[in-house]
């Protein structure tokens, strides 16, 4: 089971690597990694289990964050629409995106970053994505809102990119041309 101590923090070199594609059929090790990532995001959003195991709540977790440089992440976004609930993405890709951008009004956070970094993180407002599931089936989805933002945050982790790389240091709350704010609340 993944606990906070298993999550590497900024400064660890693995977070800056381009993670490796996963091959199929999945090894037992990769299968376990998928399940562990998903278990973390689900448990961390459960008040009781989160408290019991001391988990910081997160809607997503990428393999590099547990020091496994592989193209895998898990997302659990209970939003009624059911688009990214209990979702595991292997070798994920954005196949097309809107011109329009979006950003979370209150900024982003990261389980690998133990500080608040203020500022807008520009993301594509709408994306069409492809990924493989554990059996190697191709999953294709159109995402907007928080699911689209979270998918881009996790995909960045597979490419060694941190959310604050996107923030304008000199003007963190500068207007982003062509962007509509997304209100998480
Ligand atoms: C805000 C938070 C996340 C994604 C998008 C906006 C996920 C935070 C947890 N993670 O560090 C996952 O990489
Ligand atoms: Ni993160």
From TrEMBL:
Q: Which cofactor does it need?
A: Fe(2+)
Q: Which reaction does it catalyse?
A: N-terminal N-formyl-L-methionyl-[peptide] + H2O = N-terminal L-methionyl-[peptide] + formate
Q: Where, by residue number, does the polypeptide cross the bilayer?
A: none
Free-text cofactor note = Binds 1 Fe(2+) ion.
Return the broad EC class: hydrolase
* Family in the record: Belongs to the polypeptide deformylase family.
What is the designated name of this protein?
Answer: Peptide deformylase
Question: What is the organism field in this record?
Answer: Sporosarcina ureae
- Name the gene for this chain: def
């Amino acid at each position: 089971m993944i606990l906070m101590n298993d999550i590497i923090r900024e400064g660890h070199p693995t977070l800056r690597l381009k993670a490796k594609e996963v091959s199929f059929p999945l090894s037992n090790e990769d299968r376990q990694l998928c399940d562990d990532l998903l278990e973390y995001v689900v448990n961390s959003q459960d008040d009781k289990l989160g408290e019991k195991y001391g988990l910081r709540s997160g809607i997503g977790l990428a393999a590099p964050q547990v020091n496994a440089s592989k193209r895998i992440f898990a997302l659990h976004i209970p939003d009624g629409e059911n688009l990214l609930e209990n979702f595991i993405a292997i070798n994920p890709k954005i196949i097309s995106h809107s011109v329009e951008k979006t950003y979370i009004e209150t900024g982003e956070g990261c389980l690998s970053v133990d500080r608040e970094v203020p500022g807008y993180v520009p993301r594509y407002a709408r994306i069409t994505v492809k990924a493989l599931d554990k059996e190697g089936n191709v999953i294709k989805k159109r995402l907007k809102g928080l699911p689209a933002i979270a998918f881009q945050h996790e995909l960045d982790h597979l490419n060694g990119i941190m959310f604050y790389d996107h923030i304008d240091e000199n003007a963190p709350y500068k207007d982003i041309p062509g962007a509509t704010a997304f209100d998480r609340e």
